Amino acid sequence: MISTSTACAVTLLVIPAWLLVLTGHDLRSRTLPNRLTVPAVIAALAAAACDGGVALSVVALSVPYVVTCLAGGCGGGDVKLAAALGGLVTDPARSLVVVVVASTLSLGAAGVIALRCRGSGNGVPQAHGPALVVAAVMFGGLLPGG
């Protein structure tokens, strides 16, 4: 049987590694693949089924992305990442902060890119996953003592 401390130690290694892999993949390819997001969404939904606060956190973080995706402003990978992160954040109020901070970071990055490219309009989508991950880590309580 695995001890609680062993499970916690593994979790403390696996989640940051997963977030780094997701961020790197999104920066390189501008996509968040199902093989990296779907298992985490399943875990978040399982946690949400057991805890109403987690369920509200998943909803609070993912619904703005569902709406944005339907309007063509982000991709399905961003929606799945938001749902998975909602399961990690576990607090609906923090989840809303994460949405605002991630959006602000992405808008700031888009502004810098627009200034640097001077309206070249190359049509390359911006990776939003890294902003979402940074916001969740910094403001979602994912840091130790957070």
Tell me briefly what this model is:
This protein is mainly alpha-helical and 146 residues long. The protein has 6 helices and no strands.
The dominant shape is globular
**Low-confidence runs of at least 5 consecutive residues:** none
Q: On the 0-100 scale, what is the average pLDDT?
A: 88
Give the oligomer, counting copies of the same chain as homo and different chains as hetero: single chain
What is the number of strand segments?
0
Through-space gap between termini: 29 Å
Structural class: mainly alpha
Share of helix, binned = over 70%
Q: Report the sheet with the most strands, covering strand number, pairing sense and barrel closure.
A: none
Q: State the helix count.
A: 6
What's the helix-strand series?
HHHHHH
Query: Mind telling me the C-alpha Rg?
Result: 16 Å
Describe what you observe in this structure.
This protein is mainly α. It has helices at 4-29, 34-50, 52-70, 76-89, 92-117, 129-139. The protein is built from six helices and no strands. Helix 2 (34-50) packs across helix 3 and helix 2 packs parallel to helix 4. The longest helix has 26 residues, at 4-29. The two termini are 29 Å apart. The mean pLDDT is 88.
